[in-house]
Specification:
The chain is of the alpha+beta class. It has one domain: Rossmann fold. The chain is built from three helices and four strands. Helix 1 runs antiparallel to helix 2, helix 1 packs across helix 3 and helix 2 crosses helix 3. 19% of the residues are buried.
């Protein structure tokens, strides 16, 4: 099935994998102190939709705008990355170690 853009691919993939996957966690994270968490495909899809809406409605970004993201490897990263794509924006990863 052809997709028009990355946001559409992400949304359809989340729906498909939520329905088909026996493992319901899309992403999981364990931190050194032993705390852990996980997000399902449906949660990632819903949260990234909300973040995309925030970027468009509150921040005022439009398709093609660049969004610099500086996040660790955490559960927030896939939500933010997919939200940026769903808003039609360009994700620009930054790393403070390289500046």
């Amino acid at each position: 099935m052809p997709f028009r853009n990355l946001a559409e691919l992400a949304h359809e993939s989340c729906k498909r994998w939520q329905a088909e996957s026996k493992v319901k966690a899309a992403f999981s994270c364990v931190v050194p102190n032993g705390m852990n968490g996980r997000l399902s495909f449906a949660q990632v899809d819903e949260l990234s939709d909300a973040f995309a809406g925030y970027l468009r409605a509150v921040v005022g970004l439009k398709a093609g705008d660049r969004v610099a993201v500086q996040l660790p490897n955490s559960l927030g990263y896939p939500v933010v990355a997919l939200g940026v794509f769903k808003a039609g924006c360009v994700l620009v990863n930054t790393n403070p170690l390289y500046t």
